[in-house]
Structures are given as C-alpha cells and as structure tokens.
Amino acid sequence: MKPVRLPAAATLALPRWALFALGLLYILPGLIGRDPWKNDDAASFGIMWTMAHGTWQDWLWPNIAGMSMPDEGPLAFWLGALGIKLFGWLMGDVLAARVGTVGIFLLGVLSLWYATFNLGRRQDAQPLRLAFGGQPEPDDFGRTLADAAVLIYLGCLGLLLHSHETTSEALQVSLVALLLYRTVRYVEGPSLRNAALSGLAVGLLTLTRGWVTPVCLMLALFACTRFLDQPAIRAARDLGATIAVGGAVAALWLLPAQLLQPYHQLPLNAWLAWNLDQLGMPGMHSLKFFFRVGVWFFWPAWPFAGWAVWAWRRQRRALHIVVPLAFVTMGALLTLFSDQPEQGQLLVLLPPLAIMAAFGLLTMKRGAINAIDWFSVMALTLCAAVIWVFWIAKLTGWPAKAAKNALKLVPGFHPELGWIALLVALAATAGWFALVHWRISRQPAVLWRAVVLSSGGLILIWILLMTLFLPDVNYSKSYASVARQIADKLPAGARCIESNVGPAQRASFAYYAQLPFAGVEGDHCDLLLLQDSIKLRDEREIPARYRDQQWKLLWEGRRPADRDERFRLYRRGG
C-alpha cells in the first residue's frame, strides 16, 4: 500500500513569481561587488581571464598566465571567458565572468524542477485515492513536489558557497541535475533519442570535470533499466548511443588539443592522469570525511531523503525512489573510493537527494514538520541577529567584545557604512519576518510549507553576509592589495617574472597588477616572486632551483589578514 494520503488543498503550487524571486535572491548576492576570493574561485577566474585575453592555445590548454592547469576540463572556463569577451567592456572582467554562473544556476534549478515534476506525476507516485474524492490531479501533485525539491535544493548548506564561485564544480552540479532529468525522461520512455540526449549531458560533464563521475552516473542510469520492461539488447543499444554521443562531445576539445598541441603540450595525457588520480581504495579517511562533512553539507535534504527510502520501502519498483537513489549511491561510492575526498565530490549527491527529500515530505507527520519549522525560525533568526550585532559593533565599537572579535579577523581594515548595502539588508530582514508571520499565522497545508522557512532563512543569512560584511570578506580573502604593492615596486621595463606562487595568487597578481609572468614553456627571467611562510627560520632563504645567481630583495609583504603567507620580490644580481 502506498504511504501517502493527500488532499488537493495540499498541492497548491508556489507562485511562479515567488519561486523566480527566491532564485534571484539566492544567486545574485555574492556575484555583484565580490572580488575573486582565495583558492579555487580566484584560480578559476584566472584561467577564464587568460583565455579571454590570450590566443587559441590558451583555449585548448587551460593555464593561468603561463601556469598549466589542464586537469579538470575546459567547459566552465570557456563559458567564463566567453562572458568576459562579450560583456567585459561593460561590467568589468570579474563580473562578466560570472554572467555564465547565473545561467549555470538556472540550468540546474530547471533540470531539478522538471525531473521531480515528471517523477511526481507518474502513476506509481500518486497518493491513495480518497473515499469521497478530493485527491490532487497528477500534474498538480508533480508541480508541488517540484517546488518542494527546488526549495530543499536551495536550502542545502553545501550548495550555497559553491554555486556562487566561478569554478567547474558549480557547472558540474547543474549538469548532474541535467543528466538526472534526462534519466527520468529515458525511464519514462526508453528510446534512442532519450539515450542520445543523456549522452549529451554525459559529454558536457566530461568536459567539465573529467570522465570518472559521468561514467559512473551513466552506469547508474542503466542500472535503473532492470526495473523497466525492456529487452537487454535494446538497453545495450541505448547504452552504446549514450557512450557514442558523450565521446563525440568530449572529442570537441580532446581531439583538436591533441592534434594541434598548444604550447607543444599534450592535454590528453595530463587530463587522463588527473582522472585516474580521482580513484583509489576506500579507507577510513574518506569514510570519516563523508559522514563528518556530509552531516551539514546535505542539510536539510538528508533527513527527508532517508525517511523517503524507509516510507516507500514496500514499493520497490517505484522509479521516483529508484532513480535518485541510484545516483546517490553512485555519488557516495565516488567519494568513498577517493584518496583525497573533497567537497566538490559531495555536490554530485545534492540534486538526487533533493528529489528524494521532496518525496519524503509526503509521509512526514505534522508534528515533525512543525518541529522543523520552529527549529528553522529559531536558529536562522538567531544567526541573523548575531550578524546584525557584529555589524553594529564593528561600526560603533559597542558592544566592545563583539567589535574586538569582528575586527580581529581583518587587522588593519577600516569599516565604512554602505547605504545601499544597508537598505538591501534591511529589506531582506523585513522580508524574513513577513515570511515567518505568513507561515505562523496562516498555517498553510501546502506540502512545501516545511522547507520554505529553511530556504528563506538561508537566503537571508547569505544576503546579510554579502551586504553588511562583503567589504570585510573581500579584504580578508582577496589579493588585490598585495598585487598593487608588488606593481608599485616592479622595476620599469620589467618583461618577465619567475615565480612559485600558487594558482589563486598568480591569477590575482596577473589580473590586478598585470605582472608579466613566465609563459607555459618557461622563460629565463631577471625577476623572481617567491611565496613562502613567515615561520621559516631563515627569512632570506632562496629555494634551491633559484640559487644559480645572487638575488636582490626589492619588496616583501603579505595580506594583513593572513598570519602565515608571505611574498618576496627579487631582482637577479648583475
């Protein structure tokens, strides 16, 4: 027996304007006015910027001002570079590179919505018919479930930061949602066309972050075919079509890059080596990482998703559980079979978990839903209040302890009042209280009521951080100030700089200071920029590979918010 009894009143869809507004409020803060931040965000922007201002070789061999970065795949960087080419003159290179981020986010949300909608209107997902009628229509039921899945997806803590970064991970999670949607369409109507369109998603994923993840998810797709009345020969034919289309899409980069050999390099070799490094033997380290990080990374999706598996356990052929569960299982195995697991691998699980969580909402008791609501209201309102207190403290000095703690993280920073940011933050806070009042006063019976406060509260927290504290975070995580210091000390007519700085630092220095770093093939330069730690005993120690001549120190500095990192600029003696 199905575990769901639901009246039509519980399947009122969220107004389209409200869903669209939530999406914009989610994605736009953190894109406007934000500098490229330390590590992956700055490094990815550096690849895009180098492509946009470089030659055809930079598009085939991703690099950051001469530092080779061929590991993941070029698709996300192509999109960012295209944005710079088209809109850089209008909005600046940094913001132009993020135009694609908005489109990538919309692709993921729409794919998730339609995947859930198509699963929700299937006959095996429909609630039990009520004795006197009044049960929802299949399309209304599917729309309500799709709205709930999107709200859960937007409320996941792990998605928040990654969806705003200009990295391949943001594109990967949206393409996983696209592949999940194409999988749903395939199991609805197995055909060569649907298999080929699934192959398109597989190929795009391969161009984004390698072949390991898309191949494993493709196997999950065809593992679901055992629940269909489909001959094995037909399934094998469709699998071949998926592989052929996916391989053809990946060849759009790999074949020209291998034949033309940009900068006399072989991208295929480096790319395959990086892919093989993603696989390893499972161990306690990856297992601990999965559960320690996953507890908060997948919140609030994982409790609902786990309950969905239990509630629908008697319907073993229910594809609305089988399909997302296959993706979740394969995504979890990818993380466990990794020597160095990272958060980017966990992103693969978010779209299928959100779908499963939406079906878990159907069977939740009213008391459990009310408990989740009250937890969201109390916890998120408290977080917002703390943010406001620290913002007031850093500007006024009261409360003194809060002011000290706020400024301790950004030594040397002088906070200023930004009126536009303040008005946006006040409007977002007022909107939060209006949402809470609507939920508590009206007590709507709609299915998505249990997650609207979680999503709305998380959006509020993000807006407050990206308005009230954006200057502080830029000061703490950007290399703009250090880049300008180096540019001021650079000798006139400098043509080439050798360096050991990391990808994020190299990207920031090349963009903000236009430093002429050595190229991919390497150059013999008279300037040397070193990155090391201030904890080194010998402050003037030069790495062995640069000891061929004497060096004269021109400048030394670091970011005020970084207590370990140090940079030194040298000129070759003689």
From TrEMBL:
Keyword Coiled coil recorded: no
GO cellular component, as recorded: plasma membrane
Segments crossing the lipid bilayer: 6-28, 98-120, 240-259, 289-312, 319-338, 344-362, 374-393, 417-438, 450-470
Sorted UniProt keywords: Cell membrane, Glycosyltransferase, Membrane, Transferase, Transmembrane, Transmembrane helix
Domain of life: Bacteria
A Gene Ontology biological process term: lipopolysaccharide biosynthetic process
Keyword Ribosomal protein applies: no
Primary location recorded for the protein, binned into one broad class: membrane
Membrane topology field: Multi-pass membrane protein
Protein localization: Cell membrane
GO molecular function: pentosyltransferase activity
Protein name: Glycosyltransferase
Organism for this UniProt entry: Duganella vulcania
